Queue: 3 jobs
Job 1
Amino acid sequence: MKTLLYKVCLFVIFVICYVDVQAQSDSLKINSLKKVLLTEKEDTNKVNTLNQMSGMLAHDKNSAIAYANQALVLSQKLNYSIGEGNAFYTLGDIETGNNYINKKRDINKALEYFNKAIKIFKASGNQLKVADTYSEIADAYRGLNSNFSEAANYFFAALKIYEKLGAKDKLANRYIGLGSDYIRFGDFNKGLSKLKFSLSTYEQMNDSPDIASVCIIIGQSYLQNKKLNDALYYFDKAFSIYTTLGKNSPEYGIPWAKGNIADVYISQAENAFLASDNHQLALKKIQLALPLCMQRLELESAGNMSHSQTYLQIGNCYYDLSYMLPKTSKESNLLESKKYYELSLKLGKETNGKELTRDSYNKLSIVFHAMGNYKEAYENYTNYISNRDSILSADVTKKIAQLQMQYDFDKKDAAAKAAQEKKDADAKHIKNQQYLVITALGVIVLAAIIIVLTQFRNNKLKQQANIALQNQKNKVESTLAELKSTQAQLIQSEKMASLGELTAGIAHEIQNPLNFVNNFSEVNKEMLEELKAERLKPNAERDEDLQTDLINDVIANEEKINHHGKRADAIVKGMLQHSRQTSGMKEATDINALCDEYLRLSYHGLRAKDKSFNADFKTDFDESIGKINIVPQDIGRVLLNLFNNAFYATNSEQKTADESYKPLVTIQTKKLTDKIEITVSDNGNGIPQNIIDKIFQPFFTTKPTGEGTGLGLSLVYDIITKEHNGTIKVESTEGEGTTFVINLSIS
């Protein structure tokens, strides 16, 4: 014990020297800013200086708040929105404690300030600051009340913006928290991959303080998984970086690294004592750990930093000494351990630290048990269980996994959208070239006619004119053949365009059953693991009812997986059926189901191309129709064209209408005597009466250049009238809407 006390004294001397140097450095910076404030005019520069001053005085909450409020008032007076947003951001950061204030922190106040900051940053279009504020809210939920589910929402919201902006340093920072949460909830490999991504990014940036911070987090991950040598390697690396930085090292760096190295020594001591019964090695490790913990406590106290883990560490050291040293000192070491655990519990309650409160109750239950006070031990253990269950919820793990899946899907969806936009641009280029060819051919035809007329009028050269006329006739016929070939290519291009729109809708539709399949399979895996664990118990301890319930739940989930798998299969088969060339053979088809399917695919296809698009749709199907003989692929193309045009019309109207306008597309089927009637209506901008008779003509379109080929309704007309011997008519009132009415024979 004398040797141990001697080491503690040496560390205290070191602490006093280190704190003095650090305090002098911070004091010089603060005094420099104060001098600047005295000379600055009341402009935006002064707002920025006040915000900076507030951030540096985080150890002095009252002063920090005072400077932030000055920045807020001045920025509002100057109408300086960014300064006002930064002031609210700083006030929110102060309320979170920022690891410096050993007092109760107010998450509600912090969220109020952060939300005001977000509103300002969004209005000014500063997406980076919006993402930074999301990050701070995530840290507040995570650190102040261990609400990991809500924290995950803001984590991924920030990640999406950082990803879009290409902010690698910000992404690396967010991956630290995300990786820590994965490890906290049992997925060590995924968590470690996130942390090592952050480490690699900071190493590329040569950012020494952040490299050290990530090393600490990685070391803690290895420590949590009992990989002590790996943990010690990263802790030593962090300590070396902080030491090299000297006065440029963050104030929390040295004590943080020392404390984590002490955690490794404590674990090594306990392993040596329990596993190999090597009391001498165990005692040596504790004698290394305790001075480190004391140094950490002194450094944190000097910098007004939180002792959220330090009290627990010191309590652990004294508890371990209670059974490593002779029995004569057991009681005194247990009392010391109890004292620090109680300080830790008090701090956890004061700061709303759920995890710290949980761990403190657990340690106190162990100490009271060792002291023979079983009543207090039981009460503390009960409190430990209650706090543990409120933090480690299975719902949190699922929530984070779902958000990760959605985040990954959104990234893939954005990449697919970019690829589709490139394809659309290429297709537009091809269409423009085709239009040029058609124009050139038209010019040639016109020239041929002029030549024919000229030759016809030339009576003197009648014989030569007749020969020339025949030659020109042959050329015109060849030109017309080329025109028909080009028209056929354009018709095929229109069909492929409709297939692309259909594919976008199907991608959206198929995602829902796939999500169900993935989620239920994960739940089945967890229940089977639980069933496996139950079956490993002795027969007398098995819960038969639990096993039966688990088996029944697995069967029920498998039925759901089968159901949604068949749904996905049906969607894929529908897509294949649409994409293959039509055989021209009619078959019995449920026209109501066909209408419903293509209505939804059209809507989701347009939504996939334009996230801002939104409209309502209604169906009114006559169930007495049954099945009719049609070519389903071709009628599907007809319906897809009509639905796309209807949604396009409502979207165009919505851009110019007032807020009372509600876009609506309606599909109705009705059985008549010997035929069925299909009506597609919209409340869009309508078709002018002077062009309504032209809409079924090839290449005629009312859409802007590049947005339509003019072949959609021409194809619709040919499929209905020529292929199915039906009729199609259109009724429209400009500014009110359009209705297409199709009649098809039942036989």
Note: Residues 596-745 form a domain with the Heat Shock Protein 90 fold (CATH 3.30.565.10).
Job 2
Amino acid sequence: MDNSGQTAFFAQMMHPSFYPHPVIAVDTRETHISKVFLTGDYVYKIKKPLNLEFLDFTTLENRRHFCLQELALNRRLSRNVYLDVVSITSHNGEYGIDGQGEIVEYEVKMRQLPENAAMTHLLRERKLGLADMINLSGILTDFYTRTDPDTRSTGPGAWETVVENCEENFRQMAPFSGQVLDDRVFQIIRAAVRSFLHRRKSLFDERVRGGKIRDCHGDLKTGHVYFTDDGIEIIDCIEFNERFRFQDIASDLAFLAMDMDFEGWSGMAGNLISDYIRRTMDSDIFVLLDFYKCYRAAVRCKINCIRIGEGGLANTEMAHLIAETRKYLELACQYAAQFTRPMLWVVCGLPASGKSAISGELAKIFGIQAFNSDVIRKRLFGAPHEIHLSLAPEASASLYSVDATALTYGRLLLLVQKEMEKGDSAILDATFSYARHRREAMRLAKDMDADIIFVECVLRDDLLKKRLLEREKTGSVSDARIRHFEYFKNRFEPLTGIPESMHVTVDTEASLDACVGKILVFKNQRGFAINPLP
């Protein structure tokens, strides 16, 4: 059966008398792969007889199979919503539900949820808050925890599958590039995605080994989440292709976060993601989030392009869909800029404030180089790391003279410049007591068209002194000791000239995980804006 074959019973399904229950009026929705009839109490969803490379609904048996799959899979995140798979029958030219005669189609019968309970509607009405995001995060955490990891190295969720999914997106978007889509922007996104996949393959492989590939929802967006009186209901998961459903949890969450960005609620999305990471300690999600948001925005572009290509839309509908598609493309481009643009991390603060521990963890998470001023200073002047040197800046021969310090910071900036010239981010691990050195770092970031974040590590004086005392026993590449405390504290110039969007303070009395979590949340929540639809 083709689309024209379904048209005959579609016409009858528009009449309230078609249904075996009271119906006052029938409304319809249409996506690129389905036709949906809303009757007030119940929804009937029919799959179009299409083959779109990533799905095959061309046979009646396939459509029945995937209706049953939809029923079973969606019951994981909803209660009493997915009711049954029913047939449409034909008898003497009349069609009916589960009636006499030949079965011509199958459909999923659902309880109709109130539109004003949809997350999209509630966001636009400003009726959701932090507590709602925490509740949603808890439900999703439980869901991902219940599902078994997919550890097949060549199965769904592996790096090769991510590459395949991205390339399929680009292949199906390409015919619309230069027409619906801006070709230059399309090319930028494609190049950025391919580069990230090539450079960060080890991270994707580690996600597989770490059990982060799960049987997910696959189509987690705001229009599929409902905050009802009975609780949160999540519907319409992917049932037609395991390649889209077995995926990194980061990709599933990124779809919802991207959709919230699209609606102008980046801060709320950040709250959701941050709470999930708080529950799971899965901080790698922050590293992958912009990439997967870009992928998901491209998915929405592709879906809209397919719908545009099908035709049958009124002029106003077509104009709106084209505008929406271009907005998704713009969003994907902004994500691409974020995950390809180098980041200069300046981890600063008094000696013993925990800078090196923070720097090391950030280096591990992002797979980048951290440059420590103590190591570079001694390497620059040929001093052994294990030898404790004088910090007297007044001695011209001292490694801590004004000239030697200027040379050390100059060398640090040169090293990170070389990293950024390769397109890589880098970390500066140094006290940065003086505002002039911070300005030099900011100038370098601007010259390299890099982003920059100052991570200021702070700690109570008594704890700083305790850590400095411990160095007398354990040793440290740093030459700072307890007797230097007042000297360092008095010369440290406050970070008053750093814009708030570039400056995060962490109290390192907290655990390393908590400190790094705060830093990653800060990076993720700085956000951006896109133009509203006309």
Note: The radius of gyration is 28 Å.
Job 3
Amino acid sequence: MSTPDRNNDSEATESSILTLKRWPDLLDPASLIALAWTLAQIAFVIWPSIDTLAQRALHVGFALALAVTMFGRDRSTMVRHAYALLGILAFVPALYIAWNAGYLTGERVQGLDGVTPVQFGLGLFFIVALFEAGRRSLGLGLTIFSALFVLYFFLGPYLPGALGHRYSGLERFVDTEFLSLQGVFGVPVGVSVSTVFYFIFFAAIYDVYGGGKMIIQLAFALTGRAVGGPAKAAVVSSGLLGSVSGSAVANVMSTGIFTIPLMKRVGYAPTFAGAVEAAASTGGQLVPPVMGAAAFIMADYLQVPYQTIVLAAILPAAVYYLALLLMVDLKARAENLGVTDSSEHSPIREVIASRGHLLIPLAWLVYRIVSGFPVENSALEASVITVIVGTLRAGTRRSLLTIVEALIVSAERTVVVALPCALAGVVVAIIAFTGLGTKFTGTMIWLSGGNLWLLLSFTMLASLILGTGMPTTSAYIMAAVLLAPALTAIGVTPITAHFFIFYFAILSMVTPPVALAAYAAASISRASASGTGWSAFRLSMPGFLIPFGIVMHPGMLLIGTLGDTIWGLVTVIFGFGCIAIALIGWFLRPIQMPWRLLFVALGILSILPDLWTTAAAFILFAAATAWLGLNRDKHRLGQTAS
């Protein structure tokens, strides 16, 4: 079994991304396109005067060309070259937009100036290629969802009542989606090109130099000897690594190869082991400083500095991982699971001595973001610092070929962010120009009767449904456009409303029927994908209280007074603690269904804003604890006698 190796520092074991063996491997068409994309992104930072539309068009063009070219990998030479040619053709429309960006944004009047035959042909070809690449790269979920909105765009004039609209026509569609900053090249792509790429770039560089392995070793050093140590190490390492990677599935594949086998070794069932890793990796998108692409889009929607989002996310993220730690601890105690041997993990002093210098880039990244520096500059600076400090130590020094590969991998990993952002841009433009967003908001408020709890419940369900089979970024964008306005319309502050849907867009990664993070974990644990998905869902259920707690107690987002913050934390922690007890069925001793139902009720009551309701929940919890504690010895005697 593979465990975190504390002695082997060879390049081959440092990172999960190393595939190039020699320089000629760079001649692969996909590698060349990826390298060109990364160099273009670096140029955008060096020369920020490059037109915004040109940057976004090139970003999507490179993503589309790379995705198409990668379809031909591991095929015959003829097929590989055919896909490379298709990739180049897919890049041509984006190149046209970039070349004419000054005219399109400065002189041309959208909706008044006609669409030329060249623009019409290039636009249709580009959008069709985007949908096909999305289908093959991202699956049917987002592609079908986006296609339904396109269908709504064209059928609008024929629909009855409030659903109908007059904004239609193929020429207008191409004009809106291809020739402006409102469609494919809209806000979601803007965030991908100006922010997300650079953090993916930093994560790749950091991974190459052994930063990911250091984080895993630190987690095992901190929690390895505790009850349920491997599961707790999975929670801690996934949270720390997720704060850099911002991707649930990538997080699972990076840390799960170490944590899942160890969890199985000490007695956790394969489905539960995979579920722990999936839930913990999903939560990595909640952890500052990176958090994932959706967080950057949130900052753009709210028109606030990214550091505002980072600061607001600190306490909810900490509470989420505290809930997971409590769940795995209760599970370990309920099943009397053992601990790992000390030989399975390195002492913390040894980890710090060999790799502690890799904490410097992380510290610098956090400092620069919190200080208000542009996030893309901060990520690039942290990447450069990683190369410098990594090269200064022989154990983490890397070859130039390895660094070049990190540049290539950065682009390859960004494909699964850039393409959904482009498809989401198509949908956002249709929602805006047809007025569907306003209609949807009115419908949500009408269905809930203006009741906050009902509206929150509807919003939660809709966010989870929107996230079915979708990347978190796309799920958040759809929810932000369709659902957040309904919450703000009845008085929820914008940042609170967006954090509410942000959490559920993320939790959709572990919510059946399509739980992508859980399926990735199941491939490692060799357990049922469906069983792992449902187990991950149950494991993350205490976290479902956190978004409601944020709305009831905005102090958790560092809004308001210190007293509001402390009170919010106390009630939410108490609430998910009760839910965790009910789900595991163990508190001081095994508990049966009546007790479990009681703890569920106490958990829900605790987050209500009414002081007396919360006080009653605390009193009932104290009484239940006393009763279960007094009868614990009798229960043990009964078990022994049987």
Note: Residues 435-641 form one domain.
